[in-house]
Amino acid sequence: MTKLYAIYGASGCGRSLMAVARQQLAREQEGAEIVFIDDALTEIGMVNGHRAMNYQAFLNETASEKYVQIAIANSRVREKIANRLEADAIQLWSIMADNVTVMDEALIAEGSALSPFVTITSNIKIGKCFHANLYSYVEHDCVIGDFVTFAPGVKCNGNIHIHDHAYIGAGAMIKQGTPDQPLVIGEGAVVGMGAVVTKSVPAGVTVVGNPARIVQPK
């Protein structure tokens, strides 16, 4: 039985996660190859010492089992690719760096990417294709939806509910909620870099500043 692993996306996000992916396979004592998938390629090349190919070429590879980590920052594109992989019976691949901390009763769905120095504490539920970049943390009793993205240094404190496709910018801090009244970040909301979120954020809006306020469209 042959296995082939892939990082979907050869831009900055994908190249950063390739090292995490190699750590993952080394930890599991799995000697299989990892390739990049880049739909802009017309022929197989090399990126940072790994073969790189378009999706059709990846499908044509003869491995009996294929696993893919979607290293695309745009969550809507991540979802489209996840649907394509499911249709082609290719499994989502979760990766985490060696120094990630995951505590008790943390349920993380398939396809997650946990970068170095990420901490996931206890009694947490996280949906599929979650990206947590360097030095981010998720505190106790949080519920995070599908295709959520944390930029580096996000501080997600306890009793917070983050809905699908939300984007939390670098260094943002989200105030802790309570068990009976969790703080909610709505679906598709964007929390700007360095924002301090002290109350719930409606779906689809962008908030910035300290305390975070909604940016009104011009």
From TrEMBL:
Pfam families: PglD_N. It comes from the Bacteria. Residues 6-85 form the PglD N-terminal domain. InterPro entries: AcTrfase_PglD-like, PglD_N, Trans_hexapeptide_repeat, Trimer_LpxA-like_sf. Belongs to the transferase hexapeptide repeat family. This is Acetyltransferase. It comes from Acinetobacter chengduensis. The lineage of its organism: Bacteria, Pseudomonadati, Pseudomonadota, Gammaproteobacteria, Moraxellales.
